[in-house]
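Help: read this over?
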Amino acid sequence: MRVAFLPIDNRPVCYTLPKLIAQTDDGIEFFIPERGLLGGLTKNADIEGLFDWMRGLPELDAMVLSLDTIAYGGLIPSRRCPETFEQIKARVEKLKEILIEKKCKIYAFSSIMRISNNNYNIEEKEYWADWGEKIFKYSYEGGSDSGDIPQEILDDYLKTRKRNFEINKLYLVWQKEGLFETLIFSKDDCAQFGFNVEEAKTLELLGGFTKTGADEIPLSLLSRAVEDEIKICPIFLEPECKHLISNYEDISIEDSVRGQIELAGCRVVAKESADMLLYVNNFCERQGEIVMGVNTEPFNASFEVPDMPYMIADVRFANGADNNFVEELFKNKFDDNFYGYSAWNTSANTLGSLICGAKAKFLAKKYNKDAFIRLQVTRFLDDWAYQANVRQALKTPDTTVLTTGMKSFEQRVAQKLNTEVNVKYSYPWERLFEVEVEFN
């Protein structure tokens, strides 16, 4: 199977994670552009370079496409770029011509512009540092009272939203013309109410399909492109709390799990009919977040692995693992029934990437065990060792302190996965939020 994959940007979870997953099956020919062509925190994608890459691709079975990369230069530039609707429309029309020429199945997604609920402007326009929380409140309350937000700032924000919304409506026209096999509109860092929620409802009324999440959606589409189905039974470790809503999302964890399974081209079934179990370490009362100082009740029970294929979504905390759960998990021996662990960022991020990796292994035409082990080493070192532990001792990115702090965790991961761990670390965006695990 030949699949081309155009990421949102150059972050590890967007660039190296899909490569690790695809490598699990040597039967997948995986085409991804050079990393330097993609955008970053302060750099836009080289769109003309990406057009050349797309034109040069061989005959494909499928293409997974992050539309924001071409339209705006990446996910973050989609909130920042000053270009007009007409300029962006001309660019994506060129993309449409290339996609028609490729004659393969196109699995695409475009983001519904998020509304960050804080005054951090590292991923937003400059004025977010002063007005972000108030713009979020204005949106959450339906635009009824703008308070003291300067009119020129409000006008600029609403103009940017309208431009992106109109581009999304253009994609819907293409969908109805038959261009896309699947088209998803993602609700990134979403609350229960707001302009982004209303835009999603409008797109749905127009025939569009929306999904809570963002960074994991290309991976869910990659999973969907592998067309055979697997039957999955979700098992919530806190079943009485599965109605609760995760941080940065607008639906219950139960609905999030079901939606991620179905988007990945899989089916939710009862245990007796399942090919695989999905254990969900969900939260009581509210989802915690270690890095933000938000506590929650940790896992406090025994956990024994089943005698059938299983995977684990550890979502009790956002942005990192539940230490109590990992300690209990590590009392078990991992065998061939283990199909993956994940605990990164939002619940949707964790679920979408986890299911993709598990499906790739389960349906592999030429299973590559070494690649699967590298994938699991990465997740345990990033999601558990770094995010839930070592990161808490760091004030600024420092690879020397990081490398020293990770050593004891490397030893435990190596022992549990019966492998050697020889890695190095970097901060690709020069911030603590994401770390890159590179194999030497």
